[in-house]
Amino acid sequence: MGAGHTHRLYRHGHSPVHGLPPHTKLAATFAFVVVVVSTPREAMWAFGLYAVLLGAVAHVARVPAGFLLKRLLIEVPFVAFAVLMPFVAEGERVEVLGMSLSVGGLWGAWNVLAKGTLGVAASVLLAATTELRELLLGLQRLKLPPLLVQIASFMIRYGDVITDEMRRMRIARESRGFEARGVRHWGVLAKSAGALFIRSYERGERVHLAMVSRGYAGSMPVIDEVTASRAQWSYALALPCAALVVCLLGWAL
Amino acid sequence: MHVPDGFINAPASAATGVVAAAAIAVSLRGARRELDERTAPLAGLVAAFIFAVQMLNFPVAAGTSGHLLGGALAAILVGPFTGVLCVSVVLLMQGILFADGGLTALGVNITDMAIVTTVVAYAVFRGLVMVLPRGRRSVTVASFVAALLSVPAAAVAFTLLYAVGGTADVSLGKVATAMIGVHVLIGIGEAAITALTVGAVIAVRPDLVHGARGLRQRLKLRVNGELVDVPDAEPVPVAARSHRTMWAVGLVTSLVLAGFVSFYASTSPDGLEKVAADHGIDKKTEQHASSGSPLADYGVKDVDDSRLSGGLAGVIGVGVTVVAGSGVFWAVRRRRTSDASPVSTGV
Amino acid sequence: MTPSLEVAGLAFAYPDGHQALFGVDFSIGRGERVALLGPNGAGKTTLVLHLNGILSGGTGTVHVAGLPVGRQHMAEIRRKVGIVFQDPDDQLFMPSVREDVAFGPASAGLKGPELEERVDRALARVGMAEFKDRPPHHLSFGQRRRVAVATVLAMEPEILVLDEPSSNLDPASRRELADILRSLDVTVLMVTHDLPYALELCPRSLILSDGTIAADGKTAELLADDELMRAHRLELPFGFDPRSVPAAGGRP
User: Fold this and answer.
1) I need a surface site. Which of B284, B343, C210, C242 has the fewest CB within 10 A?
2) Domains of chain C: residue spans and CATH
């Protein structure tokens, strides 16, 4: 993961979506996913409309469809699970192409696939249009405990440093002719992991010293304050509100 | 296994969200006690470590490999509170940055993978360390067992969540068998790697292993050129011994209990299925097991599996008992130590 | 005039019993640039950590601009003593250069345009103004070290303490840093093994050996004293002759 300015999913841009304050985007994404999850699975058309809504957001944010679709691949393990579901689930069965499938299982699979995919797509859109730093500020603004935000921020700052150390250790191992091939080599890998932990922890101690040296006494000074105007809020919340209408229709019809 | 959106229904997701929030709130307070004002940088770095180590692949056999989940490792290395925080932060960031695990399923994921694994692992670990003879080998053994149990415990927790709020009507028995079966295998890998890693850390910096604080070398002072032991701050041994007896009694009790559970489970051929039936979820398992679906194997193996799961239930029974017991214990001891010594942070 | 830094009778043993300092005495006047030389394990880092009160509990005193280092003035002391640690990755812990430089002054309570101005000034002094919004991590090592210096300068310290400032720098970055250090009008204590760098930048040097100050004098003279150097495991690079190099000047 790329720390600091950008991360793997982020796409640099200046669209209206990029420009929204991060906490409004976080809130909107979360609300949207909640609405999607609460929609009855029988209302298949509703999920279609949700997809259209997300498509519209992606269009406004100028995130290309290919980028979005590629990022959806993270869901693959659960697609596999969903595919199995009709075979193992209980209840009434139907014959499809000579296979006995459970009706409940088919619904279950549809449910997980539709909601899971929409959830991932919404998260990907959020991550694609929001810088890491902003995400942290947004979380802070949404009243996540400051200590938790600090931990997250240190994790992001040092994620790369530690991953890089891990990579160097692997290169060092490999240059001495070691290649982990099976269970026999776990000992060596675990020693690396142990060394990595010690390095991480000791770095944590040094970072703490550096912080204390610059006047840290337990709480981070507020350097950036993000604020959102009413217009920005209403703009961001348009997505979950539209989704909510769809959801209510889904329950009513 | 990060649960996506829509897998667990909304009420259950919300409930786990509340559980997760409460646990994180408790952990934040607890972590401050474990690490004082160094919490943010140290927990952040440990979270980064967990994140990195989850990317370290351990080859199993030709072509396949697994990776560490890290809950048990975090609990043993930095303590349960910091451990819960670190793994939760990793999950939070994975959810927001990588869309890995649904946003509404965050509560489920944190409860399952951050809280259950760390708490079970730490409880088992402490219990074993108290009972086993003092020494590095014991710490390694305890780490092994703790990690071994933590993963199926998470699978059990997941199955329970699924029983409460699952959106697909796959029989609970099948979910349990599949989840626990797979996760016992994963648990073995997790256990071996966790134990080896803890062993590696303990060999170099034993002071960094939170779970092995009792094993530190006695400090010496140089007074006029001679080495003198640092005087004891408090008479520890008496207390330690009584703790140890209590731990031993607790563990034996839970083992006996576990024996009962296993016995019960293996005498009734479909122990877990029976549990499922009691919940009114599963009524036709046997019938469908032979209905020619590609996974009918599951059903055919049911009897054998239930014996296995019976044994497992026993193992997990031990885990649960130790968790409950140590929870009480710890609360008591915490109170006692915090009463005894006013906190002094030395910077 | 009160000296910037005054250390008297400082002795310290770590909790594990290892004694690192055995009575350190020295004093640095305002505006001086002094090198603290010494072999590995001489107690240099331990001494540095005493200067802003991160380590304490032994005997002896440290005064910064007349103020005793102790619990009652800790915030003030930490503002006055700016330590630049050896690994800039440890020092730059915030997600962007700007926030990192702002951390110290913001901790001291600065806000808004005043804070912004302080950050800009500190970055300008190390020539890193255009990197303000970059994450520290995407900078080169030399740039990171310069930003690390800026993070400390932003606190407008009385004394700048640099731990091995030249380590891991390529010759160009090394020279750039030297130029920056020379251009600053603060008191500098530079802890280093890099004897030519000490000679280049610091007119005066202290040699810390076995936890005490073994020598205190003009850098050029100390480095030219072969016996002294050998006695304290200090070695000049091959072919380097301190007598052939013009010694560092004082303040311009």
Assistant:
1) B343
2) 5-88+159-239 (3.40.50.300)
Q: CA–CA distance from B178 to each of A103, A177, B159, B290 (Å)?
A: 21, 39, 10, 18
In chain A, what are the domain boundaries?
16-138+227-252, 144-213
B307 part of a folded domain = yes
- Strand C159-163 and strand C5-13: the pairing is unpaired
Task: Give the tokens for residue A200.
Answer: 């991480």
> In CATH, what number is assigned to the domain containing residue B166?
1.10.1760.20
Q: Tell me if chain C has a CB within 8 Å of the CB of B137.
A: no
Predicted TM-score of the model (pTM): 0.73
- Helices H, strands E: what count in chain B? 13, 4
Q: Is residue B77 exposed (0-12), middle (13-18) or buried (19+ Cβ within 10 Å)?
A: buried
Distance CA A104, CA A83 (A): 13
Tokens of C10: 């400082």
Beta C67-68 vs C59-64: how paired, if at all?
antiparallel
Beta pairing, strands C33-37 & A99-102: unpaired
Please give the tally of structural domains in chain B. 1
Distance CA C111, CA C107 (A): 10
Mean pLDDT of the residues in chain B = 68
| A–C CB contacts, 8 A cutoff, strictly below | 91
Which range marks the domain in which residue B189 is found?
A: 10-216+231-340
What DSSP designation does B287 have? Answer: H
Interval B146-156: pLDDT, tens: 999 998 888 88
Give the integer Cα–Cα distance in Å for B323 and B328: 9
Interface contact flag, B295 A195, Cβ < 8 Å: no
Alpha carbon B26 to its chain's center? 17
Q: Is A209 on the interface with C (CB under 8 A)?
A: yes
Q: Which residues of C touch B (CB under 8 A)?
A: 13, 15-17, 19, 54, 57, 93
Please state the rounded mean pLDDT for residues B271-291: 36
Per-residue pLDDT tens for B131-147? 888 777 888 899 999 99
**Angle between helix B172-204 and A186-213 (nearest 10):** 70
CB neighbourhood size of B112 (10 A): 27
The two beta strands, C159-163 and C81-84, are parallel
Inside any domain, residue B267 = yes
Alpha-carbon distance B96 to B25, whole Å?
A: 20
In a domain, B347, yes or no: no
Which residue in the set A157, A161, A215 is minimally distant from C108, CB to CB?
A215
Does B322 or A253 have the greater pLDDT score? Answer: A253
